Amino acid sequence: MDDRTKTPQDTLTIDQAAQRFGVSRRTIERLRSNGSLPGVRVGRFLRIRVADVEQALASQNPEQLFRLQLHPKRSMTMISWFRGWEQLAHLTLRKPADRAAAIRWISTILTNFEDLEIEKLGVGDVLECSTDARLTPSLSLLSDTLRGIDPERPMIEILRELLPLIVPNL
């Protein structure tokens, strides 16, 4: 199912969203009022998409986005998953050169493996795309680290092991 397809299971009321994501109703209302969270009226209820709540909360707190990236839903497409990594690059990489190189690398991976399932993207696939990305020294360190890992291992497994070491609250 496409991330943009709306079904009743994909939308929530404000109270449902607050409960599901463990935030206050006021937090959801604040995201709505500042334009970060779109919604649509269905009868007397405002409905908001689960994906929009995830994105709005992640933009407020990169740790939330890291969690979503490490545990993508089965329905999430490779495109949506990599858009999340691009968003994280924008939110967390301070040096413009690192940010630009990371986004080039992400775009190259997406171009080459857009139709692959997230769980099937291997370390070797990611490394294959690193040469075209003109990596900065910081990102080359990441690439060099990945070279020491079995290229057949799913990248999502490696991310689930490595990221909690770098981002402690995951």
List keywords for this structure.
Multidrug-efflux Transporter Regulator, Chain: A, Domain 2, 9 helices, disordered N terminus, 170 residues, mainly alpha
Structure report:
With 170 residues, the protein is mostly helical. The protein is elongated. It has 2 domains: 8-60, Multidrug-efflux Transporter Regulator, Chain: A, Domain 2, CATH 1.10.1660; 72-166, no CATH class. Helix 1 (14-21) packs across helix 2 and helix 4 runs antiparallel to helix 5. It contains 9 helices and 3 strands. Strands 1-3-2 form a 3-stranded antiparallel beta sheet. It starts with 10 loop residues before the first strand and ends with a helix. It has helices spanning 14-21, 25-33, 50-60, 62-70, 78-92, 96-113, 123-128, 137-147, 155-166; strands at 11-12, 40-42, 45-49.
Question: What's a concise summary of this model?
Answer:
By secondary structure, the chain is mainly α.
Q: What fraction, in percent, of the residue positions are helical?
A: 55-70%
Counting DSSP H or I runs of 4 or more residues, the number of helices is 9
Rg over alpha carbons:
17 Å
Q: Could you give the order of strands across the largest sheet?
A: 1-3-2
Query: Which regions are unreliable across 5 or more consecutive residues at pLDDT < 50?
Result: 1-8
Average pLDDT taken over every residue: 87
Q: β content, as a range?
A: 5-15%
Indicate how many domains the architecture comprises: 2
Backbone shape: elongated
The major sheet is characterized as: 3 strands, antiparallel
- Helices and strands, in order, run as EHHEEHHHHHHH
